[in-house]
Design goal:
Elements: H1 24-35, E1 62-63, E2 74-75, E3 82-86, E4 90-97, E5 102-110, E6 122-129, E7 134-141, E8 151-157, E9 170-179, E10 186-195, E11 223-224, E12 235-236, E13 240-246, E14 251-258, E15 262-270, E16 292-301, E17 307-315, E18 320-323, E19 349-357, H2 360-365, E20 370-380, H3 405-408, H4 423-430, H5 436-452
Parallel strand pairs: 1-3, 2-4, 11-13, 12-14
Antiparallel strand pairs: 3-10, 4-9, 5-8, 5-10, 6-7, 6-9, 13-20, 14-19, 15-18, 15-20, 16-17, 16-19
Helix pairs in contact: 1-5
Length: about 475
């Protein structure tokens, strides 16, 4: 969904620990609760009920008030990330573009946690020229589960042989439209990106042959990580097996570096419900008639946040697995393919794996958290890039190159993921430690400290982006 804003703190019953952000009160409170408990703590787990972690916007996000028409549309600069809100039927934003670069704009809409949604609720995103001609159009919705979750669609002004529209420099507009019947305000994150032309032209023919065999998921001892809460906060993972935890209604973001010529595949396993928790629907889960449609969703997005492929499975309380279908290797010429997923696999860079567990799972089987195993495989072999004439915006956006520093810091040696916040607090939130009053006290201290440290405020806020 990069999440690193501070060091991971470890504290034990002896009172020894490293001060993090000089939050002495927080250290004492966490240590007291940990010392009072005899419960074994998992290395890294999801923040438990009652709150569902919110969508995490970029730390350097800029404000971009939505306009109701083109005349007062706010300008978006490629390379920056913007926060806005969809309050009516449409929202307008402006682009000033040159006559050589491809520009892509992703729009992520964030419904409020607990919102009542219908199957058709979602957004449509288009890029239009000054005459109202559409350069592109894409849409996304909540799907059959109707579970509130981040919804991402994208638009583009791109150059293609024989394409007559949208090829000139000038003013363009990003138009975000609401689909369905929901009338609530939705938060928006907009991320425009520019792609330079090539130094030398390449052939436009798309190779027809590629390895379309179903990939075998990797088998290994899982490494604990903590998924991010947004694209900008996505936790870096590489080929391998990764363990996490998720609560109903939550969406987790991971990023995978995929070079030119590589072929990414992924699967996610969801553990069964806790039959001994006394939670709703937990009695005799294996034979229960309770079932949630499209409960577990796994989606793959490319570097500009365009969806490549997704997979959804229902959930009846027992373990389930969702696997992405095979997709072609990443190649520059894939952009000339007429359809997805090949058309979307046109860039090297960070690809995103996004996992959502439907909120309805809590009603049927309890609030969790539920164990999650992510399996990532990279096939093919790295190839040379196409040779861009200039840098992208943001700089180096379509490069893989040396290993991203964000990938090396996403999990510590003990499996505690800094991406989800301080490991001790994460454990406290879900480990069943201490009494309810002690937990509330620690969470209160943590919240106060986090508010005073705005620079590291990347934790859960209520899932209302306008709050």
């Amino acid at each position: 969904m990069a999440r690193r804003a501070g060091r991971v703190m470890r504290t034990g019953c002896t009172g020894r620990g490293v001060a993090v952000w000089q939050a002495v009160v927080r250290i004492v409170a966490v240590g007291a609760v940990l010392c009072a408990s005899s419960v074994a703590l998992p290395g890294t787990v999801a923040l438990a009920a009652p709150g569902v972690p919110s969508y995490a916007f970029a730390d350097d996000v800029r404000s971009a008030p939505a306009a109701t028409g083109t005349s007062d549309a706010v300008r978006l600069e490629p390379g920056a990330t913007y926060r806005s809100a969809l309050q009516g039927a449409k929202a307008y934003f402006r682009l000033e573009l040159d006559g050589v670069s491809n520009v892509y704009v992703s729009v992520t809409a964030v419904p409020r946690a607990g919102a009542t949604l219908a199957v058709g609720d979602g957004i449509s995103v288009s890029v239009q020229d000054s005459d109202g001609a559409r350069c592109s159009n894409d849409s996304a919705g909540v799907g059959a589960s109707t579970s509130p979750q981040p919804i991402t669609a994208w638009g583009a002004r791109e150059f293609a042989p024989g394409k007559g529209l949208c090829q000139d420099a000038g003013t363009y507009y990003v138009v975000v439209e609401r689909t369905g019947t929901s009338g609530e305000d939705w938060g928006l994150e907009l991320a425009p990106v520019s792609e330079s032309p090539l130094k030398k032209a390449v052939a436009t023919g798309v190779p027809e042959a590629w390895d379309s065999a179903t990939p075998v998921p990797p088998v290994a001892e899982p490494v604990a990580v903590r998924g991010g809460a947004g694209f900008a906060k996505a936790t870096g993972v590489e080929e391998g097996v990764w363990s996490d935890a998720i609560v109903p209604g939550q969406t987790l973001f991971y990023k995978v570096p995929v070079d030119w010529g590589r072929q990414v595949s992924a699967a996610v396993d969801l553990a069964g419900a806790d039959t001994d928790s006394g939670s709703p629907g937990s009695s005799g889960v294996s034979g229960s008639s309770e079932y949630v449609v499209d409960a577990l969703d796994l989606a793959l997005y490319n570097p500009v946040r365009a969806e490549v492929k997704d997979a959804s499975v229902g959930y009846g309380g027992t373990q389930k697995s969702a696997s992405l279908p095979p997709v072609p290797p990443v190649r520059y010429v894939n952009r000339y393919a007429p359809t997805d997923p090949m058309n979307s696999l046109r860039f090297a860079g960070s690809y995103y794996l996004v996992v959502h567990l439907a909120a309805q799972v809590a009603e049927r089987f309890g609030e969790g958290p539920y164990g999650l195993t992510l399996r990532v495989r990279l096939g093919g072999s790295a190839q040379a890039g196409p040779g861009y004439a200039e840098q992208s915006a943001p700089r180096g956006f379509f490069d893989v190159g040396a290993r991203d520093q964000g990938f090396s810091e996403d999990a510590d040696a003990s499996g505690g993921g800094a991406a989800g916040g301080d490991s001790a607090m994460t454990a406290v939130a879900v480990g069943g430690i201490g009494t309810g009053s002690a937990l509330l006290t620690v969470l209160g201290v943590w919240t106060l400290t986090a508010r005073r440290r705005a620079a590291v405020q990347i934790r859960a806020n209520a899932q209302n982006p306008t709050a």
